[in-house]
Design a protein that fits this description.
With 425 residues, the protein is an alpha/beta fold. It has 17 helices and 14 strands.
Length: 425
Amino acid sequence: MKVTIVIPTRERAETLGSTLQTCLGQDYQPLEILVSDNFSQDHTKKVVESFSDRRIRYLNTGKRMSMSGNWEFALSHVKEGFVTFVGDDDGLLPDSINNGMEIIKKFSLGALSWKKVEYTWPSYPISGLKNLLVIPQLNYLLRFSSEKAIRDCSSFFLWYNYCPCVYNSLVDFSILEKIRNKTGIFFHSVIPDVYSGFAISSELKSYFYSMRPFSINGASGQSNGTSFRTYFKNKDDVNNPTVQFMKENDLPLHQKMPVLVPGSVTSSVLEPLLQANDHCFGGTLKINFPMAIRRIFMEISPLDPIIYQEAVRQLKLVFGPTSFGSYVKKCEKRFQNHPCSDSPIIIEQCNAFEKILDVSNNSVKNVYEASLFANAELPRYSIPRTIQNYSRFSLLLFSLGPKIAKKIPSKIQGLFSLILKKWPI
């Protein structure tokens, strides 16, 4: 069964080479690596050609497109098999395609998602966080009901990356094609990776999520996520990735979230969630706006006061005329002097059983070397024996270890899940 690795790229020649190395290290057959170059003006094409590998197919958009436009362009060149997207400063762990496809074939899955290794490049702009690796140590599978996953993402209890996003999943292309045929294009949001997880969930009854990672998320100095935290202060810097991203965007933001709040990841989850609700779920999702607003305040309250004030101003413009305007004022009062206090329960990262390593002194200079180092720190791979059905309780408890979770009677799990469902806003 063919696997296509899609690498959308733009002006990232300095990181793309090591990303390609992680992909070319896969020995799965048949494999295609599709590099979709968004009209880069640096030496991106030369970097790709330097590998001289027949598995690589280089595409160029011929003109500068939005991020979502480039992703859509790349997807239009995929015809069959399974697909995963890899960022141009990210990478795959050794033998991850073989391991992932082995699980897919064994359990006849339409999608397999996984937790990532996290890596900060030497170019990461925050000095105390450079050259770090966060390596998950667990090896078990969660079986997600898509209905439950999207319900809990809509309530902002479950973080979006537990959905089958193309950035951390192998997905049957026929599912993507089915969605595209229904909605005209596949990517209807300016945040294509987040949107994909929600959209794919609309066509799957269930999928598996591996707590053992198969890929590595690289945060470099050119990462959109990195630059977005300080976008407002640097909005006149034409070289800032987020400035370029916003300038090139040609998709309208959702009318209920017409801004991406500076410094807030949650606002970049809420917007594609609203788009997916319209395009894939027929408006049936119950989106918890108060929880989203609180999450945004948790993210912006520790930031630079200038960024914080601008973010609050935008929130008031968006939600002030709605029934949630009073809640914005309530959160502003609560979080202004007490950053990140009064945190709601939310499953975002399972922090237990992770190694956090400073690799500054280990000759790790790029995502390829980081992938090799991280792989050596992981337990030897085998198809997990432990498969747990997802519930709010199971994921909370599994963050402490699957052996503990297995000992809790199902009735108690169900009761606890009910309590969490009613958790006060």
